[in-house]
Amino acid sequence: MQLYRVPVQIIPRPGILDPQGAAVAGALRSLGFNTIADIRVGRFITVDVNAASAADATSAVRSMCEKLLANPVIEDFVLEEPTLQQGGQS
Amino acid sequence: MKFGVVTFPGSNGDYDACHAAADAIGQECVYLWHKDHDLKGCDVIVLPGGFSYGDYLRPGAIARFSPIMNEVVAHAKRGAPVLAICNGFQVACEAGLLPGALLRNASLRFVSRLVTMRVENDSSMFTHEYYKGQILSVPVAHGDGRYTADPDVVARLEGEGRVAFRYSSTGGDISDEDNINGSVNGIAGIINAAGNVLGMMPHPERAVDPVIGSTDGLGVFHSLLDGVPA
């Protein structure tokens, strides 16, 4: 077993009103960032997980997203590539 | 009739719910600890308001995996009543007892005040003591009350008369102005397909005594107590 870090992005689904994103976009526009088309604010989670392989680590974190970390009614999730960490169980 | 109010870490509406059940309508009421597996023979389960688990991740997301929720879900699947108020509504949606989800208020502001809402369903086990179109004055206190669901789910709720309450003006009009949190169609409360789970953001248990400004929430408790007329 090795320790992998799997970063997860959780973002509001398309079509879901994101007032936080709209407020942040408004603030940036008022600072002169006039090129902003849209901003969505989500959540970023890193999960350190013991797994036999990177694929197993991804699979485990996908299950965690489906069960708890994301709510499919309102959120999509994106798993980033796992990176090997120091200190895994052998 | 025996009421059981679930206490999660962070619940704050549990005492109010028991006050309504025990003092306002004179029924037995017990607290059910979230780590227990025993509903203690209760007829009605209340999922109360509050900030269970600090609203971490999403409101209700962690509470929904509390040990007692297995029994609450089984209770609901048997057709027995579950009254899910505010944070309880969020927990019930996360647990799949009700469709949809509650998102951050469109205003991004926490809203804590008396609001008016219109009765949309006057035939359920929770609402039959009201009449359709009745205007109720009931307090809300939430930051994440914007009801959202897929358009086909909303169409089913509307088509099947499962929208229980809708935010309205004191005259009963529905407008964006009175939609305190930006909920789709101004939805304040919904009922599941089987008719035995009510989820609502406003607090009927905090409107059972004239001394606190309204008794309009009593109808929910009297409806449960009296049963649906044959």
Structure description:
The complex is a heterodimer of chains A (90) and B (230). Chain A contains two helices and four strands, in the order βαβαββ. Chain A has 90 residues and is of the alpha+beta class. The model of chain A has no long low-confidence stretch (mean pLDDT 95). By secondary structure, chain B is α/β, with parallel strands linked by helices. Chain B contains five helices and eleven strands; from the N terminus they run E-H-E-E-H-E-H-E-E-E-E-H-E-E-E-H. The longest helix of chain B is centred in the N-terminal third of the chain and has 11 residues, at 14-24. The interface between A and B is medium-sized, with 10 and 21 residues.
In terms of topology, how is this protein built?
The complex is a heterodimer of chains A (90) and B (230).
Chain A: E1 2-12, H1 19-30, E2 43-51, H2 54-69, E3 75-79, E4 83-85
Chain B: E1 2-7, H1 14-24, E2 28-33, E3 44-47, H2 67-77, E4 82-85, H3 87-94, E5 101-103, E6 111-119, E7 135-142, E8 146-148, H4 151-159, E9 163-167, E10 187-191, E11 197-200, H5 218-226
Parallel strand pairs in B: 1-2, 1-3, 3-4, 4-11
Antiparallel strand pairs in B: 5-8, 6-7, 6-9, 9-10, 10-11
